[in-house]
From TrEMBL:
UniProt gene name: tsaB
UniProt keyword DNA damage present: no
InterPro entries, per database record: ATPase_NBD, Gcp-like_dom, T6A_TsaB
Natural source organism: Spirosoma arboris
Cellular component annotations (GO), alphabetically ordered: cytosol
Residue intervals of the Gcp-like domain: 33-147
Protein name in UniProt: tRNA (Adenosine(37)-N6)-threonylcarbamoyltransferase complex dimerization subunit type 1 TsaB
NCBIfam families: T6A_YeaZ
Top-level taxon: Bacteria
TM ranges: none
Pfam families from the UniProt entry: TsaD (PF00814)
SUPFAM superfamilies reported in the protein's UniProt record: Actin-like ATPase domain
Coiled coil: none
Single GO MF descriptor: transferase activity
Length: 230
């Protein structure tokens, strides 16, 4: 028996889901330009209340750990850790790209490889490779896309590229026979973070609340202010 609350603000979208024993009880999703902590906490309260539960009844809290937006990841992880400390509940952290792959894997044959992508500015994407059983074939990385990207995997068989980073990849390798770009908008969601959290809760390990940090993948980049010339 497990009641798991899941959070995902890896990108501009904001989502919260509640699962009990693998069954989705409720999911709220917002697709806005900016995600705020206030929006997230409102959705948390709503989904738990509408499902007929109290926060104290949760068995665990899961969060999409990244990669993704620096600010978005900070919001979700900070909120999840705060709830875990306040409620004395364990924290589960799920890879954002694994959650995206979970959304589509049932729709493709076993011979296909899945490549979820998150836009990381310019010609760079965060990506990973999975088979349709959900097993990771290539670990999460930041890739600068060119016409030779994924050539090995494309030589092995069909590769499905999806997510908001796939468009820049399509312009360069979309003509290759094994490159598949479905016309669907796949965005990170707490729905599939919660699905993956069920097995993570049963198998462990749980995250250390004191030391856990989002999976940024690369350092946060800021621009230097220009010197004012009088």
């Amino acid at each position: 028996m497990s009641l798991i609350l899941s959070l995902d603000t890896s990108t501009a979208s904001c989502s919260v889901a509640l699962h009990r024993d693998g069954l989705l009880l409720g999911c709220y999703e917002l697709f806005t330009e900016r995600t705020s902590a206030a929006m997230l906490t409102t959705l948390i309260g709503d989904v738990v209340k509408q499902a007929g539960y109290e926060l104290t009844q949760l068995d665990a809290i899961a969060v999409a750990k990244g990669p993704g937006s620096y600010t978005g990841l900070r919001i979700a992880v900070s909120t999840a850790k705060g709830l875990c400390f306040a409620l004395d509940k364990p924290l589960l952290a799920i890879n954002t790209l694994a959650g995206m792959a979970e959304q589509v894997r049932a729709y493709f044959p076993v011979t296909y490889t899945l490549c979820p992508m998150i836009d990381a500015r310019r010609m760079e994407v965060y990506c990973a490779l999975y088979n349709t059983n959900g097993q990771e074939l290539q670990s999460t990385s930041a890739q600068i896309i060119d016409e030779h990207s994924f050539s090995f995997w494309l030589s092995q068989g069909p590769v499905v590229f999806f997510g908001d980073g796939a468009a820049k990849c399509r312009a360069l390798i979309g003509e290759q026979p094994n490159a598949i770009f479905p016309d669907v908008n796949v965005v990170p969601s707490a729905r599939t973070i919660g699905q993956l959290a069920i097995s993570a809760f049963a198998e462990g390990p749980l995250e250390n609340l004191a030391t856990f940090e989002p999976f940024y993948l690369k350092d946060f980049m800021t621009t230097q202010p220009k010197k004012l010339v009088l």
